[in-house]
Amino acid sequence: MARQRAGRGAKIVQLRDKDSSDRRLLEKARYFRRRTTEAGALFLVNDRLDIALMSGADGLHVGQNDLPPEEIRRLAPDLVIGQSCNTEEQARRLGQQEQRSELVLSYYNIGPIYPTGTKDGLAEFIGPEAIEAYSRHCSLPFTVMGGIKEHHVEDLVRAGARRIAVVTAVTDAEDMAAETARLISRITTALEERDG
To answer: Which residues does 4-amino-2-methyl-5-(diphosphooxymethyl)pyrimidine bind (predicted)?
Structure first.
């Protein structure tokens, strides 16, 4: 899967696995690290700082209830660190930290944009109109995620997205590599049309 995604142009691959044993997760992470290195893609691990460090991952993505980004940065000063942002208030707090030069994140994620089955316990989806509202609070790069399918791309780009993250749009596809390539092509075209 990592080879299929990164081999077709995915610039970032995130390993999100809530079910594997620690040992199996580390094996997967090391496999993903090798494949993403071969493809020149950034490799992130979800939630698990220990696995990110042991596998040589480029970064770690955490949710609002996971390890505090400040502690992660203290332990791993060179790691790319991203955090999910599920409400406008969370985006506002990021902006306040940024203004005080206290923000340690490398990027943040806005979502879920659409209904999704991959994130339990989150509030309802926020819709593409939230992209502009959230992103005006903080100037860091951001991704958008949550229930995104290929036909959503143009609406997301029009709303201000530059980086679009997907899960089931690719993992549920018969040919993950071909679907990854289609999504990237569609995103690239939409960005070119928007940005001229």
So the answer is: 14-18, 46, 84, 119
